[in-house]
Design brief:
The chain is α/β, with parallel strands linked by helices and 302 residues long. It has a single domain, classed as Purple Acid Phosphatase, chain A, domain 2 (4-Layer Sandwich), CATH 3.60.21. The chain has helices at 2-22, 61-68, 89-96, 111-114, 142-151, 208-213, and strands at 29-38, 45-51, 75-79, 104-108, 155-156, 160-166, 169-176, 197-202, 218-221, 230-231, 235-236, 250-254, 257-261, 280-288, 299-301. The strands form 3 sheets. A 7-stranded mixed sheet has the order 5-4-3-2-14-1-15, with helices on one face. The chain has a 6-stranded mixed sheet with strand order 6-7-8-9-13-12. It has a two-stranded antiparallel sheet with strand order 10-11. The radius of gyration is 19 Å and the shape is globular.
């Protein structure tokens, strides 16, 4: 009987692995999230298409086709890790060309854009970052990726803060480089125009607490893959970051800010697996805040 139980458990485990490799990691979806936070002065609605962790390889036609099918948005923002391999720069630039925003297209890079990804023992993610031995990595093609995106009209927000008029909405925009590899420059984070609507863009959400403390109203990030592997009740097993695992993905409050952490659309090519964590593009549908000043909870619709 024990042998039968063990065989059954092994069969279920193998089925889960096959499901994660061959089905769920390519089971892309669009999630719409409504958020009533826009100020009274300016447009009453604003749509932001948030993509992250695309992890394109050279031949990624199914993912590219899904990206091309996404609805148009006022603003499109990609929060890093475009690449799963440096050879995919041209594929990536062509794929995201179809989803540029009507008013603006923004991006920051992630560690997989700066450095060539390498195989990694998954158990390493369970070791605290402070105790991991440093790994040597080869430089990737970040400069080529930046050049291709900027030639198409994308705005690089790497360690940048500036004021914009976004279709009649006065904003103060912050972009931070990847905190995961200590490239963020928080010296630029303090706001100089707090009357403007503050938006912060970053790869890793580990810098979200500082951005929220500085008064940015909307913060978007990626990096976590939503945990990539989630279990019922337990949730994300790891997030490769410092925030609590319950904040691995989704839309949540952090002080006076709303933070959206994208579960991303891809995986490392060396870990092509997702479980109970579907790849996702998110359309944030911003609308006017309640006139009485009371906070309105976010809503979601797949």
């Amino acid at each position: 009987m024990l042998i039968g139980v063990l065989v059954g458990v092994a069969a279920v485990a193998a089925g889960c692995v096959l499901y994660g490799i061959f089905l769920e990691r390519r089971w892309y979806r669009l999630v719409r999230r409504g958020l009533a936070i826009l100020p009274a002065v300016g447009p009453r609605t604003l749509t932001i298409l948030h993509l992250s962790d695309l992890h394109f390889v050279r031949d990624d036609r199914r993912k590219a086709a899904f990206v091309a099918s996404l609805p148009p948005a006022d603003v499109t923002v990609v929060t890093g890790d475009f690449l799963a391999e440096p050879e995919a720069v041209e594929t990536t630039v062509a794929a995201v060309r179809a989803v540029r925003g009507r008013l603006a297209s923004w991006f920051v890079l992630g560690s997989n854009d700066y450095f060539v990804p390498r195989p990694l023992n998954p158990l390493r993610y369970f070791v605290p970052k402070s105790r991991r031995r440093p790994r040597h990595a080869r430089l990737g093609r970040a400069a080529d990726l930046r050049a291709g995106l900027e030639a198409d009209g994308w705005r690089d927000l790497t360690n940048l803060r500036e004021a914009h008029d976004l279709g009649g909405l006065a904003i103060e925009l912050l972009g931070l480089d990847d905190t995961h590899i200590a490239r963020q420059d928080l010296r630029i984070a303090p706001r100089t125009a707090p009357a403007r609507f503050g938006i912060a863009v970053m790869h890793s959400p580990d810098s979200a607490p500082e951005a929220a403390a500085c008064g940015y109203r909307l913060i978007v990030a990626g990096h976590t893959h939503g945990g990539q592997v989630r279990l019922p009740i337990v949730g994300a097993l790891v997030t490769n970051g410092h925030l609590p695992r319950r904040l691995a993905s989704g839309l949540f409050r952090m002080g006076g800010a709303f933070v959206h952490v994208s579960p991303g659309m891809g995986t490392s090519k060396y870990a092509p697996f997702r479980f109970l964590c579907r790849p996702e593009a998110t359309l944030l549908e911003l609308r006017g805040a309640p006139q009485d000043g009371s906070p309105a909870p976010p809503d979601a619709q797949q």
